[in-house]
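hi!! sorry for the late reply, been swamped w classes. u asked for the two structures so here they r. pasted raw, havent cleaned anything up. first the sequence of the first protein and right below it the C-alpha cells
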Amino acid sequence: MDVLALSRLQFAATAGFHFLFVPLTLGLSILVAFMESRWVATGNPMYLRMTRFWGKLFLINFILGVVTGLTMEFQFGMNWAEYSRFVGDIFGVPLAIEATVAFFLESTFIGLWIFGWNRVSKRTHAFAMWMVAFATNLSALWILLANGWMQHPVGYVIRNGRAEMVDFWALVTNSYAWWKFFHTTLSGYVVAAFFVLGISAWHLLRKNEQPLFTASFRMAAVFGLVSSMLLIAAGDFAAKDVAKAQPTKLAAMESHWETGKTVPFYVLLVPDAKNERNAVEAIPIPGVVSFLSFGDFKAEVKGLKEFPKENRPPVMEVFVSFRTMVALGGLFVLLSAIAVFLVRKGRLDEYQWFLKILFYAIPLPYIAAQLGWTVAEVGRQPWLVYGVYRTAEGVSRNVSTEQVILSLAGFTLFYGFLGLLDIYLLAKFARKGPEPVPVKTIGPEGA
C-alpha cells in the first residue's frame, strides 16, 4: 500500500473510532439534563439517583471521547499537509470557533457539573448540564459546517492555488451542512436512547431497582421514538440535497447506472460495478428513487454512466452501507414504538423477550451511525472537496510509507486500549447500578 492508501486508512480508522464516542455524548447529555430537571421539579430522590447513575456513564464516555478527538486532529498536519495548505483559510474558521466557543463552554460547564455537587443550588447544577448538552451539540454544528463545506463547497474562490473564503455567511447557511447536522445529531440521540433502553432492560430482567429503571426506560423510549422518526425525516431532506449537490454519490447509493426518468426503487438489487450494471434487479417500485431524490415521481435522475469512471465513488460499499443504514433506521422506529407502548401499558414484565432484544440492540445504532459516515465520506470520493480538490492531491508529500505504517500501528494500539477501557468502565458501572442518595448532595437553594 502506498502513502495515500495508508493515510486514508489511518484517518478512516481514527475518525471512525472517535465517532464511537460522539453520538452517545450528544444524546446522553440531553437525557441526563432532563433527568436532573425532573429531580429539581419534583424533589423525588429517585430522579437524583438516575441523574448520578447515567451521568457517571456520560462522563466516562465524554472523557475518553475528548482524548480520541485531540489525537485525530494531528493527522491534518502529519498526513494531509497539502490539504491543510489548500483549504486552511476556510476549514480553520469553523474549527477555531468550535474550539474557542463551543468546546470552551462545554469544558467549563462540565467542570461545574462534576465539582458543583454540594457547592451550587439545584437549579444552577441542572442548568450546567443543559449548557453541556447545548455546547456539545453546538460543537457538532461547527464541525459539520466544516465537513459540509467539503461536501458542498460554497462562498470561496481559488487564488494562488488555495481556496479562500469570500462569503462566511454562505458557509454558515449551507443547507447541505445543516441537514447533515440534523441527521448526525439525531443519530446520536438514537444511540443514547437505545443505550439507556438496553441497560435499563438488563436491570429490569434482573428485577433490579425496578421503579428507577422503568422511569429511565420510559424517558429513553419516548426520546428514541421521537428522535428516530425525526432522523428519517432529516435523512430524506439530506438525500434531496445530495441529489442536487453530489449526483455521483446519489447514483452510488441507489446503484443507478442509466440516466432516466421515473426511476424505480428495487427492493432486491445487487450491484455489478465491474460491468457497469446490476447483477440482480427485482421487485421494482416505479418512480420512488425519482421522488426521494427530487420530490417528483417523474424526475430525471442521472446514472453513474453519465460520469467518467475516475469520478465515481466505490459503488458496492456506498450502496450496501446506505441500504443497511436505512433498514436499521426503520427498525429503530419499530422497536422504540413498541417500547413506548409496553411501558405506557405497564406490561414490560410480560415481554421479557423484548427486553432481551433491546439489550442486544445496543450496538445497532452505533453501527448505523458508522454506516452513515461511510456513505458520506466514501460516497464523496475521489474528492476531498467535492468537484474541486481530489483526495490524491491532499496527502503530505514528505511522509514515507514506513512513517505512516508506524503511526497507524501506534494509533491502532492507542485507540484499541481506549476502546477496551471504555467498554470495561461502561460495563462495570452499568452493571453496578445506581448508588444510594448521599446525605447531602447539593448546596442550599440559592447558594
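now the second protein. again sequence first, C-alpha cells right under
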Amino acid sequence: MNPSKPKRRVGLWIAVAVAALLVAVVAIALKVYFEYDSLLETGSAGNLPTSYQPIGGAESDPLADVEEKDVYNLLLAVIDNGVTEEERSYGEGLGNTDLLMYIRLDHKNNKLSILQIPRDTYVGPELAEEYTAKINGAFMHGPEEENRIANTANVVYQLFGLKADNYVVMDVNAFRTMVDTMGGIWMHIPRDLVDKKGNVVFQEGDVKVDGQSAELILRNRNTARSDYDRLELQQSFYAAVFKTFMNDYPIGDAMKVAKMVAHYVNTDLSLMDLAGLYLSLKDLTAADVYMVRCAGGPITVDGNGSLYGIEKEYTAKILNEHFRPEGVTVSADQLGLPDVEFPLGVNYDEGRTLDGVQTAEALG
C-alpha cells in the first residue's frame, strides 16, 4: 500500500480546480474587455494633431521640446446639437462644442487641474478666417473634416499653449444618460435659476436631478455674466458627480455607467487607459481637484456682441501656476490670445478646489 497516492490525487484535483478557476477568470476578463473595448471609437472626432504650429503664430515655439512624465493632458469637449432630437441638425457626433475643458492629471503631485474655456471665447481675426470667431465652432467648421478634434486642439494650443495627449468628445446626451443610469444625483444649486423670460425654473438649494434636469441646468446662462456664471454652475454639477462617484460607486457600478454612456463618446483612449484614469481619480480627494474659469468678459468685435474675450496677463499667470510643467513659463505676449477691450470690465477667477464647492447634504 502506498499512502502517498491519495495525497497526490488530492493535490492533483486542487491544481485542476485552480486552473479551471483561472481559466474562468481570464475568460470573464476577456469578455468584459472586448465587450467594453468594442464600444470605444474615435468616430467622427478623428485624431489629435501629429504636430502643431508654433504657439501664437511665432517663428519659434517655446514649448516645442517640453516633455513630461507621469502627467495626462486631456481635452474634453461636449458637443451641442440642440436640446431635442429635432434640433440636432448636424448629424450624430457633429456640432459646436457647448462645453470645453483642458484637464491636467499630475500623478507626481497627486493633483487634477481643470481649465474651463467659455464656449463663446473669441479666437481673434487670424484664426477666425480659418475656423470661426468663437472657439465653440472650431470643431464643426475648421479645415479638418476627418479629424475634427484636431481643429479644436489646434485652436486651444494657438491661444493658450496647451497640448493634449488624449481627448474625449461627448454628445450632450451623455450627461443625461449618465445621470439617469446613476438613478439621479443630488446637487446644490447656488442661486435661483431663471429661464429667458425671467421665470424661476430651479430654486437655490439641494435638489435631486435627473438627466433632463441636469442638462437644462448645465445649459442655463440667463444672467448678466452669461457664460462666466454658467461655468460656476457647472462646477456645482461636477462637484456633485465627483462626490457621488468617490463615495458611492465601486468600479462595477462605474463600468455599468460607462457602458451606457459609451454610445455618446468618441475618444482615442483605450479601455486600459480609461481604467487607469478611473483608478487614479479614485485616489484623489476633492481637495486635490482644482478648477478655474478663464478670466475675461463680454466683448464686441465687428458688430458681434456675443463674444467672450480672454484677459491675457492673468490667464498667463494661471496657466503657468497650474497647467505648465515645472520650470516652464510662457508670458502673456507669447500666448496667441487676441488683444481686446473690455467695456464692461473683466471677471477674474482665482480658481478653487472641489472641496470649496458646496454640495448637497443629502445623497439620496
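hope this helps!! also noticed smth abt the second:
The CA atoms of residues 239 and 354 lie 6 Å apart.
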